[in-house]
Amino acid sequence: MAPFPDEVDVFTGPHWRMKQLVGLYCDKLSKTNFSNNQDFRSFLRSLCDTFNEFKMHEQIENECIIGLLQQRSCTVYDVHSDNKLSEMLSLFEKGLCSVKSEHEQLNYARQLKERLEAFTQDFLPHMKEEEEVFQPMLMQYFSYEELKGIKKQVMEEHRRP
Ligand code: FEO
After folding, report:
1. What per-residue confidence (pLDDT) applies to 22?
2. Å from CA of 5 to ligand 1 middle
3. pLDDT band for position 1 (50/70/90)?
4. pLDDT score of 2
5. Which atom of ligand 1 is found nearest the CA of 15?
6. How many whole angstroms from 130 Cα to the centroid of ligand 1?
7. How many domains is the chain built from?
8. Is ligand 1 within 6 A of the CB of residue 58?
9. What Rg, from alpha-carbon coordinates, does the chain have?
């Protein structure tokens, strides 16, 4: 059970979805046949969708949570500033546009695997930090009623198509 009441817990719900997406790309990474051009491209297209969803998640957090917290506490740093989402999206687009032969696909796959693993190793602790460090700060700097409003907005924004 989450340590904070659900109606004011702004991270756990959206993170459930983000962790589900991580699980899905890890699974596809291990099963994709990178020699096959169709499989290769299909995996890269799904990665583009996934990382665009991560990007939207980050924007929602910046606008609805982190920005507000920074107004109340000057010690809150920009938690998404060294985020690798745009670099990862460029890598996927490069794969879709420039990689042609089976040999190139296999070389690219090695790089993709390394970069995805490195990203995952940062992203999971990042979410944990938000849940375990930023949520308690929110509880400290906002009233319960204010947090209920923030949670509602965060969930609505994540549901937008
Ligand atoms: Fe919830 Fe900043 O990822």
Report:
1. 98
2. 19
3. very low
4. 57
5. 1
6. 7
7. 1
8. yes
9. 18
Q: Specify the residue with its C-alpha closest to ligand 1, atom 1.
A: 127
ipTM over the 0.95 cut-off: yes
How far is ligand 1, taken at its centre, from the CA of residue 35, in Å?
Answer: 34
Q: Is 129 domain-assigned?
A: yes
Domain that holds residue 139: 6-159
Flag whether 118 is in a domain: yes
Q: Is residue 10 part of a domain?
A: yes
Q: HSE (CB half, 13 Å, CA atoms) of 120?
A: 18
pLDDT at 92 exceeding the cut of 90 = yes
Residue pLDDT, tens place only, 113-155: 999 999 999 999 999 999 999 999 999 999 999 999 999 999 9
Helix (H, G, I), strand (E, B) or coil at 115: helix
Contact 13, 150 (CB under 8 A): no
Protein residue closest via CA to atom 2 of ligand 1: 58
Q: According to the model, what pLDDT value does residue 119 have?
A: 97
> Is 1 part of a structural domain of the chain?
no
Q: Is 130 in the pocket of ligand 1 (CB under 6 A)?
A: yes
Q: What is the CATH number of the domain that holds 25?
A: 1.20.120.520
Q: How far is CA 134 from CA 43, 92, 94, 111, 139, in A?
A: 33, 31, 35, 33, 9
